[in-house]
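Complex record, two chains
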Amino acid sequence: MTAATAGALGPGTTGSRPRLLMIGTGLAVAAGSVFFGALLAIYMTMRHDAGGTTAAWVPDGVTFDNAALTFSTVVTLGLAGLTVQWAVRANSRHDHRAAASSMGLTLLFGAAHINMVSAAVSDLGVGVGQAWSNLVFPITIASLVTTAIAMAFVTVAAFKALGGQTGRSNPSVAASALFWHFSTAAWFAVFIAIYAVK
Amino acid sequence: MTVTETEQESVVERTQPESVAAAAGSLFASSDHKRLGRAFVAVSLLMTAFAFALDILVTVDGASADDFVVLDGDTFAQILSLSLDTLVYLGLIPLLLGLAMYVVPLQVGARTLAFGRAGALSLWGYLIGGGILLGSYAINGGPFGGDADGVDLYLISLGMVVVSLIVAAVCVAATVLGLRMPGLRVRDLSPFSWSAFVTAGMLIVSLPVVGALLTLLYIDHRYGRVLFGGNEGVFARLDWVFRAPQIYVVAIPALGIAAEVLTARTGSRLAKPSTVATLIGVFGIFTFGAFAQPAIVDNVLSFTDRTILEEPLYVGFVGIAVLPVLALVGLVAMSVRNARLSEVDPTIGFAVLGLLLLLAGTAVTALGVLIDATVAGDGFRLRTTSWSSGTLTLVAVGGGLTGLFAAVNWWAPKIWGRTLNGGLAVLQLLATLGGVVLVALPLMVAGAAWDQPAAATIYDAEGGAEAMSVLATVGTGLLLVAVVIQIANILVSVAGGSGDIPGPDPWSAPGLEWRTGSPPPSENFAELPALDEEEVE
């Protein structure tokens, strides 16, 4: 590097910044994915060590509300995925009313999912203090907490959209949608590993 | 020149004494990456010194084969765990993240740290969580603790620290990805910024595994203790962080620091910078060690009880990690081969020492794996002995901490607005070299010659192991002295005002951080500097 070459590319300017919020959300999603990956890896390892069969692993007397869990996973979260993408599309078109409305629906579906899963887990018929439940409860709760965080993120983005911060230069709606999809994927993995395969 | 004079005035203004209350108040309300970085560096240096002080107690007890010298069976295990927690979670990782928080925004031409308020959250989470973590040990908690609530408190507080470090890593990585000045591509990053980015990325994908374990450990310990064996199972589930290959993560920045400092200080140009970046990235990938933990590898046995050939991933990662380090040493040597030094510079000494000790550490660790896989007999494996403790001292302290010492001395003018005392730095360099050698070699010899177990409660092997532990005690004392000298040097040179007040670029070094004041003004650059052609080639 020499002084003569300095300035050859012109003075630096502030210019336009990349979508920092999307980058930060992506990194948070990466960390969260590892978190759930580790939880489920430990769950499956211990299930394998316990014999690897449902009979040997799930305590006697445990009853799964398969209808509620499946409905919540497929229908409720499926609809929430659609509404949050609707919000992204509305946001990119500066339609702040549609964006806020669709995010309101997303929040409604999120609350319904938390409510339905909480009820199903409460009715499992087993308490804490057993190997199975000491794994299943924290993993399930971690997933519900992630959904709650996603709801908080969507709420903030909805208020921003209502305040007029719309368009592609305002990525808060898209970032909240990204985190929402992550929370859905996390629950889907938990549902498959714990409640479907058991 | 007008700009320079203004910067000099700001330097004088910034070095005026500030009351502790005023400083704490301004730090509390600040999301400025310079304040956050300085706070991280200061506290983590204190924590590193505390960790070595605790480690002296551990090695002193190893000097007697008959009985404990200063501790008893329970407190020995707690102090051992506390010293490792303090060194890694409260010392080395925050130190490297603090330096990255300060330097990376300057090197990429950013006016702020990405998500500055999240950065502040990470600092306060680290401080509060770290304080509670130390408090949990004080009430007989922590791993091996006798107080159940204290153990729970330990798990929560360590989780708080881990989350804080993840947030700090996200801020650093997002700064690199999202706040680079226009025209500066990722491939044009300085070696330190790239190594900080790789380190942050590896922390983002490895620390959540610790978080997941802490979540399950807390629930299980709180309700029934049926999965992980109560308080004694806590340490066994978490100690993979202190082992190869995961502990290598604290040494990644040493590669970038050495490449940057050695070429800049000697006025050389880094040979094949894209290859250097690739090597740092490859070494970073090899630091991912979450697969080598008992909770995933095996539910009952510690992974050290498994035969080494059962773990091809472990053998592969640890065995191959030496190669990128070796290649990088070669490239750095090639870069500076024609350089002529006009003066002895302790910063160069730290950079060279860190690089060579990291090379030695990764090499002997790979050698140990090779011996274990080929010639080790029944029931004996080097990695279950103090050989592994010695090799990890070479990597984490010899490579990681020494590299960070180089960074602190190199960027001190930028961080504190003063150059550090060269004489004290030379003393620190000698203490570091002596300390690492006296800790690592005796532990490796004791492990190889007398099967000395790692983390033994009583050194009941042949008499030679006792002598080795005495040497390790002296070495740990020297490492403590090295950290204390670093802290004293900062106090004398900066707070005491004896250090020279530098201009923007006291080392005549390339890099955007040297084109602004020392320390930089608010928002870092009065005007964003132009990029040189060489910086974007």
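Note: Chain A has six helices and no strands.
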